[in-house]
Amino acid sequence: MKSSIIKFHEQIISGKKSILEFISECEMNHKKYGEYNSFVTETYEAAKIMARNMESETGTNSENLLFGVPYSLKDLICTKEIKTTGGSPFLKNFIPPYDSTVYEKLKNRNSILVGKANLDEFGLGGSGLNSCAGEAKNIFDVERISGGSSSGSVNNVASGEALFSIGTDTGDSVRRPASFLGVVGYKPSYGLISRYGVFPYSPSLDTVGIIANSVVDCAIVADAIVDYDEKDFSSQKIETNFFSSLQTLENQKFAVLERMEDYLGINEKKLYLSTLEKIKSRGHSITTVKIESQILNMLISTYRIISFSEAISCYQNMTGITFGEASEPQEFEKWILENRTKGFGWEVKRRFSVGTLMMNDSSFESSLLQAKKIRQLVTNRANTIFDEYILILPSASSVAPLISDIKENKQRSTIADNVLLMANFGGFPSITIPVGKVGELPFGININLGINRDKELLSAAMTIESILDEEAQNE
Amino acid sequence: MEKINIQEAIKTIRKIYIDISAQEAEIIVNHYFELCTDIEEMKKIDVCDVEPMDYPVNVSLHSLRDDSIADEQKTSEVFKNAKTFNGKYVVIK
């Protein structure tokens, strides 16, 4: 089984290596990749103290696969006593007075937090370039983006700064950056991981996700953090045992969307098609299915209408009075105006402003209603596919774009950059796995199933991961 | 969708307590117009007999929890975010 966590566990249980040695190695990797700006706050010193204190308990934790495992949290996940900025100038000094549920659960498993990962401000972004902590750059090429918004998280795992990371995914923020960094990015079904203590972006779409080195690692972490939580209004009850349910599947029926390869770069297309061939060569079938291009073309607009309006509502409490940095007090309304204008970064202001103009329009109600109907329509179409197939999609149209192309608005997105939104619309589980490289840059595919069919999805992803590993060894 | 000029945009955006410059407003208005064009296209999609989706799951299943008094957030912890304070009051100037 391909698993960094199991390998770590075996080494500490057998005494071949100590937790402290592992944490020190992660810290070394952090020093090596420091210029890539993957953390807002690193906590290696505290992690090493914890590691020293935990060494004597190693023997009694032989069943706990997450014991001592170093991990990071996207810096919009609240950690009591540790600064949680959301990547925003507004909260650059905010210390939460409580823990998020997801952090509490990982603490209960004695995993060790090594830092708070960089991100696009409040998760509103897809590049990793919009953070109060600076731009998170791709560790494979400093000139390229790491993707976003879970930019630091994917870098942490790819660089070995941590063995796994917890991110969030509202549109594709775990799965697309995972493709750019050659790691596994898993967005579970909506409501499986509590969002209590996680800064929101768009509550009807927001999902906490896992970034790790393998599908097995994602399943191990999911077992620790998937749970019903009454503090999250969307929390769902589901039987866990993700790890023990993993199995290699045979003769599976996969599907791909018609003409999706035409929306990829030349080399990415070759990699995507050769991956499909490898899957077929192992006895699985791949059928081409269709969702009308008129609907696929509208995914991004539907997303914008829903997410921008929800985000504006979520952040009305950010005034500099109840939360956030504040300037010198003055007349109440002027004070709030100044605090919010200084406190939010450009990308957040842009999205909030476009959303406000949209919401101020007299036809907004009908536009929002149409968007919500299209959301349902997309979900219906996808569910029809899931009745019979496991759906494979490209995880992006290309490898990680150049930072300069993003800044100069030269990067043109295609339908392939937007199809991951379908999983957020329908609350589906969705996972990106690496399939190879274009030159020196990683690229991935994305696998999807119906809501709450996470165990089947993880088994399918592990099956494909194994096929690709075996093929790579034979090449 | 209604057309909007730069000054109107600045005034409207102030409603959410964000001040933008004329240069920023120009970018925002252009993005807004792009979105308006997409919305017009979106309205051409046939959604007869499709119910709007608010959430992917039925959140109405969740009953509101009872209020309870909890002493979890200590004053000292909350004050870590205050630059200065006097006794149990945050000093804002």
Can you tell me about this structure?
The complex is a heterodimer of chains A (475) and B (93). By secondary structure, chain A is an alpha/beta fold. In chain A, 40% of the residues lie in helices and 15% in strands. Chain A has helices spanning 4-14, 19-32, 44-54, 101-108, 151-159, 175-181, 215-225, 266-280, 293-296, 299-314, 332-343, 346-360, 364-386, 403-407, 421-426, 454-474, and strands spanning 39-42, 70-74, 112-117, 137-138, 141-145, 164-169, 184-187, 207-212, 253-257, 285-289, 390-394, 430-438, 441-448. In chain A, the strands form 2 sheets. Chain A has an 11-stranded mixed sheet with strand order 1-3-2-6-8-7-12-13-11-9-10, sandwiched between helices. A two-stranded antiparallel sheet of chain A has the order 4-5. Chain A is globular, with a radius of gyration of 21 Å. Chain A starts with a helix and ends with a helix. In chain A, 58% of the residues are buried. The mean pLDDT of chain A is 96. In chain B, helix 1 (6-13) crosses helix 2 (22-42). The chains are: A alpha/beta (475), B mainly alpha (93). At the A-B interface, helix 10, helix 11, helix 12 and helix 13 of A face helix 1 and helix 2 of B.
Brief characterization of the structure:
By secondary structure, chain A is an alpha/beta fold.
The amount of helix of chain B comes to: 25-40%
Average pLDDT rating of chain A: 96
Helicity of chain A, as a percent range: 25-40%
Number of strands of chain B: 2
- Radius of gyration over C-alpha positions of chain A, nearest whole angstrom: 21 Å
Which regions of chain B have little confidence, pLDDT < 50, spanning 5+ residues?
Answer: none
Report how far apart the termini of chain B are: 45 Å
Assembly category:
heterodimer
Structural class of chain A: alpha/beta
- What composes the largest sheet of chain A? 11 strands, mixed
Helix and strand run of chain B: HHHEE
Radius of gyration of chain B: 23 Å
Count up the helices of chain A.
16
Total of helices of chain B: 3
The residue-averaged pLDDT of chain B reads 86
Summarize the main sheet of chain B: 2 strands, antiparallel
Query: How does the overall form of chain A come out from the CA principal axes?
Result: globular
Order of helices and strands of chain A: HHEHEHEEEHEHEEHEHEHHHHHEHHEEH
